[in-house]
Amino acid sequence: MSVYEQINSILLLYMTKNVKSTTSPLWRQLLANTELLRTKEELSRILMLSIYSSNSKQLELQLLTKLLVHVASVHDHIELTIQYLELEGLDAEVKVLENVGFIFNGSEDLHIDGEAAIEAVKLWAERYIALAAGTTEDLKGVQKVLSDVIRDSASYEVWTARRTLAIGIAVLIVVLLASPILILLLRHTIWTIQTFTESIELSNQRLVAEKRKSDVLLSRMLPMAVIRRLRAQRTVPAESFDAVTIFFSDIVGFTNISATSTPIEVINMLNMLYRLFDEKIVQYDVYKVETIGDAYMVVSGLPQRNGNRHASEIADMSLSLMRGLEGARVPHRPEELLRIRAGINTGPCVAGVVGTTMPRYCLFGDTINTASRMESTGEAMKIHISHTTKKALDGIGNYETESRGVLDIPGKGAMETFWLLGKIGGLQQESPRCLRLHDYDQNILELLIKS
């Protein structure tokens, strides 16, 4: 491999790896230098052939052809070098190369044939030999200038690369120095998020617990079915029920007891009684409507219909309440028995929510009035039932009843009513122990303090 080919390979390898764009100044400068080297190489070959031609007595056609090829190559390389130098603005060097090109302007005469061509070649070769030294010096000058330009461009490229490397190193150092801070900030952020998540979870658990409490409280005021409807829509339409059984009870002699007792004593007595009733009725398919003073109202068959079981559910509940009050005495009057009257009636009614500020689930219809009359015309510790309830219980069976005869019921006229005596086979066990009134003998003030 020639020196020219070695230099060209090195330049191409450098340009491929290190020069980013073919339009960069360094790329053009390297190409101009390559073309200049090729020009000097071709001129050297022409000089050798010219010396040989001037001394040869008989010039061969093959030698003439080589000389013409090298001359044409010099023309091409000089033209390319001039183009690159013009782009770099090296006008003085461009003029030098143009002067070098004038030497070969008469080379067209070399293309003639015959003896004239041989003579023309010899004359041209002698002329070029005389100018070769000056031409070589001119090309060396251009090459030196171009080398300085390339050196400056290469220095700038190296400086740019070092600056980029320095900036990269500086950025890396900043990142490395900032990493611990960023990690600490990230850990703090994660800890904050975890704490916030735990707080939200705790708040959610508390909210769920409070919602359960509110649901329990609402369920004691309104049926759950009605509560779900109220949540789904603002109003709940009244609903008609074909057959329900209603229970009323009140305390015998409550007016006299209230007149001779303090308010706290009355409240304590009612609280004990209602707590006993509330504990017992949850074991049956019944719904506590309300308590007004000493009156206690329970219904079965609404708001959830239960077929024809409403009469038996109320009957079993009534017998259980009576059994729980056997031998009970007024808490603040141990010598006085606590007795109640109970009345039951079966029939149709309408139920619905009344009011918006303090909504109540109320029952309407003659069935409610009749049940209230059964209670008010009853006797102490007895369960007074209407004819419709008697008929419903007979359809179920296993209940002992006794006719009371025909009575004049206020607002209803003459009606045959009955006493509910018991259930054949007895009542089912309601709880692990049979609750009695004395199980709730606790002062109301203590209850308020504990709650």
Regions with pLDDT < 50 over 5+ consecutive residues? Answer: 1-7, 15-22, 431-435, 443-451
Query: Which structural class fits the helix and strand makeup?
Result: alpha+beta
User: What percent of the residues sit in helical stretches (DSSP H or I)?
Assistant: 55-70%
What percent strand?
A: 15-25%
Rg estimate, integer Å? 61 Å
Q: How many E-type strands?
A: 10
Which descriptor suits the 3D outline?
A: rod-shaped
Report on the biggest sheet: 8 strands, mixed
Give the count of helical stretches: 12
Order of helices and strands: HHHHHHEHHEEHEEEEHEHEEH
The CA-CA distance between the termini, in Å, is 108 Å
> Averaged pLDDT, please?
76
What's this model, at a glance?
The protein has 451 residues and is an alpha+beta fold.
Give a description of the structure.
The protein is an alpha+beta fold and 451 residues long. Helix content is 60%, strand content 17%. The chain contains 12 helices and 10 strands. Strands 1, 2, 3, 6, 7, 8, 9 and 10 form an 8-stranded mixed β-sheet that branches. It has a two-stranded antiparallel sheet with strand order 4-5. A hairpin with a 3-residue loop joins strand 9 (399-409) and strand 10. Helix 4 (91-102) packs antiparallel against helix 5 (115-221). It is rod-shaped, with a radius of gyration of 61 Å. The protein starts with a helix and ends with a helix. The model is unreliable at 1-7, 15-22, 431-435 and 443-451 (pLDDT under 50).
